[in-house]
Amino acid sequence: MAKPNLNREPMPRQDPKVRAHNFNEVALGYGEEQALREAERCIQCPKRFCTVGCPVGVDIPEFILALRDGDMPQAVKILKSKNALPGICGRVCPQETQCEAVCPLVKRDVPVAIGRLERYVATWEQEHKEQIIEPVVIAKPTGKKVAVIGSGPAGLTAAADLAKMGYGVTIFEALHTAGGVLMYGIPEFRLPKEIVQTEVNYVASLGVEIVLDSVIGKIDTVDELLGNGYDAIFLGTGAGLPMFLDIPGENLNGIYSANEFLTRVNLMKAYMFPEYDTPVKIGKRVAVIGGGNVAMDSARCALRLGADEVYIIYRRSREELPARHEEVENAEEEGIIFKMLTNPKQFIGDEQGWVKAMECYEMELGEPDDSGRRRPIVKHGSEFTFHCAHFQTY
Ligand SMILES: Cc1cc2nc3c(=O)[nH]c(=O)nc-3n(C[C@H](O)[C@H](O)[C@H](O)COP(=O)(O)OP(=O)(O)OC[C@H]3O[C@@H](n4cnc5c(N)ncnc54)[C@H](O)[C@@H]3O)c2cc1C
Questions:
Q1: How far apart are CA 126 and CA 105, in angstroms?
Q2: For ligand 1, atom 10, which residue shows the shortest CA distance?
Q3: Which of 116, 245, 286, 376 could anchor a disulfide with 315, C-beta 3.0 to 4.6 Å?
Q4: pLDDT grade, residue 297 (50/70/90)?
């Protein structure tokens, strides 16, 4: 077997100093030469660990081989036979804990950049539609109808698979646009909305009807849908409710849940001011409580919208940060400041009810808890005050 190339192709990205002030996509995607070089790194191992590591079982070595052989329509076909959303997954799936985590090259150095290759194939398809001549195979109609509630990635994926299996599928979406968190939560600089809508349109092209502005439970109940000709229901309503900290001062002005903040910025397009005049408050010194993807997205939006200093306040250490590593690095490069082993005790307001500071505890780590991460423990007597104008929490 040839010795694998251990040098993973780097992802071209916007300069951190420039991108910290715009909402254009940060990662620019591989060009053809880079994609081919990266595809060459795949050693085509007989045991398909990566396919097993992929939640939808994409035949990864096969699509990479087709790419390497220059048969791009075949690469598209293989990829899309298992995944209706490759442009989205190539950008935001946590490959480092899924397919790439089990790539045998992990042991030697760096796994094949499967997500980046997936993105490359999805982009190629959009730019070369005329070369895709084989139609998607749709099974004979089963005569059965399925209602899918929610048009996030779960609903879209279920709908696409069911449509290909011959079911009549209708997606009911509460919001005025389809895509769920992909539209209202994840910012444009990480996942352009045009990409999301292209893949939503692909799902519709399989014969899926998408009905917007329809809150199931209000316009129709699940029982009513079942009584109105649907044979089955798929509930893909997500977990959109914010979690609050339940500490004093949380209702002060200037404190947002990330859900509200990101919806204002993304779905309601506050970032496109003055074209869109959606109100959103940004302080000069912003603290974001939490260390997941949601926190990174909130912090990076606040920075782009004009904050001078943005802090990630996280109660564990860097090692336990649940956000994707790539996004932590991106945030750091852009100037986000990480304050670890810190947890708020209470928020402090001014006479007008606006937040002006936060009392925090220092934390230390104990034994692993149910999540497998080391449990954060309050260091009593360690309280200190952190001054800031606005916070986002989640
Ligand atoms: C800011 C942010 C960043 C993230 N970043 C990443 C990332 O980088 N990588 C990653 O893997 N994951 C990430 N996630 C998590 C990921 O987005 C979710 O796991 C995923 O969106 C869940 O998909 P879903 O389809 O189950 O739900 P959702 O995307 O929440 O979609 C649910 C849909 O159902 C609709 N709905 C709800 N109730 C009803 C109803 N009664 N009737 C009709 N429609 C209804 C909602 O309006 C929504 O459109 C992130 C999440 C957030 C919030």
A1: 30
A2: 93
A3: 376
A4: very high
